[in-house]
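$ run holo --ligand "pyridoxal-5'-phosphate" --emit C-alpha cells
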Amino acid sequence: MAAVTKTVTKLPAPVTYPDPRGDPELRKEVAAYLGLARGLRCNPSQVLVTGGFSGALGLAIRGLQLGRMGAWIEDPGFPLTRTALGLAGMAVTAVPVDAEGLDVAAGVRSAPGAKLAVVTPGQQAPLGMTMSLPRRLALLAWARRSDAWIIEDDYLSELQLKGRAAPALASLDDEGRVLHIGSFSKTISPALRLGFMVVPPELSRRFGELAACMAPAPAAAVQRAVAEFLREGHYIRHLRRMKRLYAARRATLLRCLGEVASDSIKVQATAGLAVMILLPEFASDVDVALRALQFCLAPAPLSPWYMQPPRQQGLLLGVTNLNERRLPADCRRLLELAR
Ligand SMILES: Cc1ncc(COP(=O)(O)O)c(C=O)c1O
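-- output --
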C-alpha cells in the first residue's frame, strides 16, 4: 500500500487489559464506515474486532452454538470455510451458485434442515458475481422461516473493480439473522491479520463474553493504528486509489492474455480481484499451477474451490501485484503451460 506520512502523536501506554471485543475507537470507526460504505447501520457495541475473517468465523461458529447441525456453503466456495465448518463437526452441504449467486431453492432441496449458510454476496468467491436482490431476499426469508443464521463474508468490501459495490446483505436484515464479517486482508494487507464482525444486537453480550474468555481481539497497537487510518479518512482514499490501480492492472492483464489466448482457453474477467482462465476438461489446473511455480508464477488452481464434480479446471490470476513489465512474457509462459 502507498505510504502515508504524518506527525505521530505520542499516547500514554495503557496499563489495563484492553477491551476483548476490540479497541473502542476502531469499533466506532468500523461502525461509521459500514454505515457509509456498505449501507449497514449498526452500533459499535455490535462490532467485534477479530483476527481476520478466519478469526471471526471461529468466533461465529462457537457463539452460534450450532453443534453438529447442517450448514450450506457455496459451490464453488472458499475452501477454508468448508474446512472450518467440517472441523467444528457441522454437516456441510455444497449449494451451487449461478449468475445470481447461491441457489437458495437448491439449498432447501438438498439440506432443508440446515441452520447456517455462509455466503459471499458482495462478490462471490471465487467467481465474482454479486448476489441478486431476489436471491438475497429469498435467503433472508429462508433464515427467518428455518430459524437459521447467515454468515456474510464481505472479504472484498468496496473493492469492486467494475462499478459500485452493492450494499451489504446485512443491511436488508430486519430479523437479526445475519452476522456480517469484514476483513482488512485485501483492503490493506493480510499481514495485519485484522478483521471485524457485526452481530445482531441480541447477540452482542454473548459474543462479548466469548471474546473475553476464548478469542480476545488482536494486538492493541495494530488496532489503534488502523482506527487512526480510518478516522483521518486515509482508508477511504486508499480504497479509491487501489480500485483505480487494480482496475488498470486488470485491463492490462486482460489485454496481454487476449493477445496470446487460444480457442481452448477461455478468459473471464469477473472474479473479484482476479482474472479467471478456464482450461479444457482434460487439463489439471493443480498440475499447471505447480509447474508455474518453477517460473515464479503463482496462479491459484480453481478446481479445489469446488466440492461437487464436475470440478471446473481453471486458474485464478490475481491482479493486485502484477509486474507489468514482465507481463507479456509471463502470460505467454502461463498459457504454454496450460495448453
Ligand atoms: C472468500 C474469502 N474470505 C475471506 C478471506 C480473507 O480471510 P482473512 O481475513 O482470514 O485473511 C479470503 C482471502 O483470500 C477469501 O478468499
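-- notes --
DSSP finds ten helices and twelve strands in the chain.
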